[in-house]
Structure formats: structure tokens, C-alpha cells
Amino acid sequence: MIYNILEYLEESEKKYPQKTVFADEKNSISYARLKQNAQRIGTQILLNTNNTTKNPIVVFVDRNIESLVSFMGVAYSGNFYVPIDIQMPKLRIELILQTLNPIATVVLKNDLDFAKSVAPHLLSLVYEEVIQEGIDENLLGVVRRKAIDRDPLYATFTSGSTGIPKGVITCHQSVIDMTDVLVSTFGFNESNVFGNQNPFYFDASIKDIYCTLKTGGTMHLIPKSAFLFQANLIEFLNKNKIDSILWSAAAIALVANSNTFETNKPQYLSKVMFSGEVMHNKVLNYWRKSLPETLFVNLYGPTEITSVCTYYKIEKPFADDEVLPIGISFKNTEILLLNSENKPVSGNEIGEICVRGCCLALGYYNNPEKTSEAFCQNPLNPHYPEAIYRTGDLARFNEHGEIMFLSRKDNQVKHMGQRVELGEIEILINSLEKIDASFCFYDHDKQKIVSIFQGKEADNKYILNEIKDRIPKFMFPNIIIKLDELPYNLNGKIDRTLLKEKYKNKSIG
Fold first, then answer.
1. Which of 159, 170, 225, 443 is most buried, taking the most CB atoms under 10 A from its CB?
2. 244-248 and 271-275 as β-strands: parallel, antiparallel, unpaired?
3. Quick check: is 147 in a domain?
4. CATH classification of the domain holding 339
5. Cβ contact 480:189 at 8 Å
6. Tens-digit pLDDT profile for residues 48-98
């Protein structure tokens, strides 16, 4: 049993000291150099903060290996890292820093002026300078001996309903649990080469980072430019012999919508996993037809349960308009579907996805009110304290006992006297051949269902003709808006909040 994610790094460094662990467009780093530089950063953090531990340290991140080294350095100091994208709006960064009140930041020399502009009084440790300093093994050893697996490892920020971002704080134990079940369930080992797509400020990136460190594998950071020019993406995957990807569903869809495999195909991909948004079978079938020998896995899980809690291996055919299960829970995690009376669902009944297990985050940083709302006592256990996380997602069990995601709780509306699941309409429209992506929501003032879509060859008439025989008329969208391109947020998901604001302000429609 291990208690600290640094044990992954240290064990792999013993076995493969000179092997490349991370590589970006410009550089690569070995396990031995990663450990050394991380220990140098950890030492300097402690020396410059009076040996303070268990406090937030901001890492201004980009798609580079220095960000990953900094994460490990913060972990060596006994503090927890908070990745912040240097291209994030300044106001959002300032709101995050107000919530955190961090003790320091690790920043590249080129980004130092930016760091000073958003946090002028914050201690800034310049990456290029601190990795030239010495390692105090005694100091690091003292910190390590006091550490436990429930100590925080990182915090990532999600959108808050009040406009103030919420910092989800996750401990070593939860990441260890996630990593161990991913590796054992899908057979990752030292020969695997991961292709990282998810940004480091997005919690989905922890899956390939820590699977790499545990197994002694290698992870390549796929440059943003590769997703702008799809031919370059496939060339990058093949050049680096990438065999495993854990991408957002949006990135998978981008490849399919561009018909990328018509000219070239990935030669080495053996495992393709996706999460973040609902994966539409129209997109998945394009990938499966092009890569028939590849394992495809649907992963589900919010940030608050350490990125993943269920999985579904796709091993049978699905029609384009069918819904893909999110599957079954990983080991050491239980999924509860609770109805409005906080009782387990029965039969085909719909319930809220609630999660219990050590995958649960510690809560929201400096936000006890929101923490108590989402991380609450298990209503099925009145006998002793036991937290569950209420996801706000609705689902049901299918005839095989697999979980079928339906929609968010706020996506269930009463329309024309009928209960309507907006997610069901969205899934249907996304299954249509000429649709690239779509988003449905409800205009409560006008009492109308609104659908916004992207698709060059599609129009309103096409959508209504295609859905007329598939859903009741009361579920038809009343307002249909076509956009040349749907906006995506920093997490790679359709920016639903922005679209609703534009609709409300009448800047679209």
C-alpha cells in the first residue's frame, strides 16, 4: 500500500531512471531528472515559506513539461498545487486567488510579469532558478514522515452558480485509488505511450499523468496546433507511437466531424477512452469503423469524485441514435441512484447519481456551505458519519444493470403539461448525420424548448423532418438556432452558460 503519489515517481525512477517520462513539443525529461528537479522545487518552497505545509501553491500552467515538474515539486513540499491557465481571463484568476489566498506560486521566467500583474504581493518562485538550487533531503524527509494519504494533493476550479469559481480539493488517497483501478482495469504498463490532450487545469488530465508515473510509461503532450490541423494530429500520434489516449468527448468528436481518418489513421492506438460530455454513437461509430481492433471505453465522473467513478467497455454495435451506457462503478466505489424521497430507485425509475467511496474529494476550499450541500450524509446510513457526493446528474439502470446517464437535474422541465428530459432531445439531435454538435435548454419566460446547433449542411427543416417520427411533438424544439461554430469553455465542453447569455441578450437567434 502506498500513501503518497510521489511513491509512484520514486518506484518508476528506480526501475527506469533514464527513460523519458514526459515530452512536449520542445523538450523531454527522464524519470531521474523529473525527481531531481521536483525535489529542488520542493526544497525551495519549504525554505522560502518557513516550512509551511498543506497550503495552496499556484502553478501557472501551459502545455509544457515544466508544469508537470512543478506539480511534483509542490507535492514534495507537502503542499498542494493549484493549476491556473495563464490564458484564463484575469478577473477569473483574481477570483480564484481571493478564494485561495495561496502562499506562493511557481512560474516560468517568461510568465513572471503576468504573475506579478495578477498577484503582485505573492511570493513567486521562478522555475528556471529554483531547479538550479540544491536538494535538502533531510528537510524533505521530515515533511514526508508527517504526511498522510488524506493530505491534499491538488485543487482545481469549476464554475460556481454564484459566479465565483469553486475550488475542488483532492487528496493523495483519492488519486491513488483512481490510478490503481485504471491501471488494473485496463492493463496499463511500462510499455504504454500516452497522448495527453486534456489541459492541466482540467481535472481529467490527472488520469494519464498518474497512470504514466505509476507504470513507468511515457506521456507526450499533444500540442494545441495539432487539433487545428487534423493531419498533423495523426502524424503526431504515429510519429510518437502513441497507443493510449484518455481524451475529452469533444476532442474525439472534433476528429470525427473533420473526417480525419479519410486520409490517414492512427497506427498504434490500442486504447481510446473519453469523458467530459455525453459521447454520441454517431461519433463513436466513425472511430470504431476506422479502428476495429481498438478498445473504446466510456468514462464518467465529475471533478468532485477524482475524475472517474464508472466505466463502460464498448464491445457490441450501437446505432447512431442509441444512448451509450456509462456502465458500472470501479472497484472501491459505489454508485447510488436515489429518487426524490432519497430511496434507491426500482425498475426503470430515474434517480440522482450519488457516489460513495474514498474517491470523494475533500470538499470545496474555503466554502463550507457549498461543501455541506454537495458532500452530505448518506441517507441510507443513519448509524454513523458517511459522506456521499450528490452529482446533480440523473440516470437509470438498464436491463443489464448498467447505468444510463440521462441529463442534469436542471435539464428536466415541465413543458405543455408533460415532463421533458432536455438531454433526450439533445442526444437525438446529435445523432443526426448532418449535425456536428448541439445544445438544448429551456426558455422559462417563453415556455419554449430551445436548440442551438452546428452543422454546415443542416437547417431547421432538416432537424424537424428527422426527429418527427422519433419523439412526441411536445418534445420538438420550439426555437432552433444555427451557429457556424459552437463555443467551448476551458474544460473542452460546450459553453452552455455563454450560449444562454447570448440567447438572453438576443445576440443570437
1. 170
2. parallel
3. no
4. 2.30.38.10
5. no
6. 999 999 999 999 999 999 999 999 999 999 999 999 998 887 878 888 999
Half-sphere exposure of 304 (CA within 13 A, CB side): 24
Q: Which residue has the cell 442509441?
A: 322
User: Percentage of the chain with pLDDT > 90?
Assistant: 78
Domain's final residue, options 407, 432, 450:
407
The DSSP string of 62-130 is -SSHHHHHHHHHHHHTT-EEEEEETTS-HHHHHHHHHHH--SEEEE-GGGHHHHHHH-TTS-EEEHHHH
CATH number at residue 424: 3.30.300.30
Could you give the angle at which helices 31-48 and 65-76 cross, rounded to 10 degrees? 50
User: Contact 159/202 with Cβ under 8 angstroms?
Assistant: no
Do residues 436 and 494 both lie within one domain? yes
Ranges of H-type helices in 166-218: 172-186, 206-215
The pLDDT of residue 182 is: 98
* Residue range(s) defining the domain that contains residue 348: 328-407
Of 350, 372, 407, the last residue of a domain is 407
Residue 509: C-alpha distances to residues 384, 411, 452, 504 (Å): 53, 21, 9, 9
The dihedral region occupied by 50, where left means phi > 0, alpha psi between -120 and 50, and beta the remainder, is left
**Dihedral class, residue 47 (left if φ above 0, else alpha if ψ from -120 to 50, else beta):** alpha
Residue 111 contacts residue 125 (beta carbons within 8 Å): no
CA angle 480, 486, 489 (to 5 degrees): 130
Helices (H) and strands (E) in the chain, counts: 17, 26
Helix (H/G/I), strand (E/B), else coil: 347? coil
Q: Is residue 150 part of a domain?
A: no
In a domain, 2, yes or no: no
Percent of the chain with pLDDT over 70: 98
In degrees rounded to 5, what are phi and psi of residue 340?
A: -65, -15
Q: Is residue 68 situated within a structural domain?
A: no
Distances (CA, A) of 127 to 20, 38, 312, 450: 20, 10, 40, 48
Q: Are strands 310-313 and 328-329 parallel, antiparallel or unpaired?
A: antiparallel
Given a contact cutoff of 8 angstroms between Cβ atoms, the answer to whether 295 and 271 are in contact is: yes
Whether 140 and 76 have beta carbons less than 8 Å apart is answered as yes
Q: How far is CA 225 from CA 23, 144, 200, 231, in A?
A: 16, 40, 16, 11
How many domains, in total, are found in the chain? 2
Instruction: Tell how far CA 450 is from the center of its chain.
Output: 27
C-alpha cell at 93: 484568476
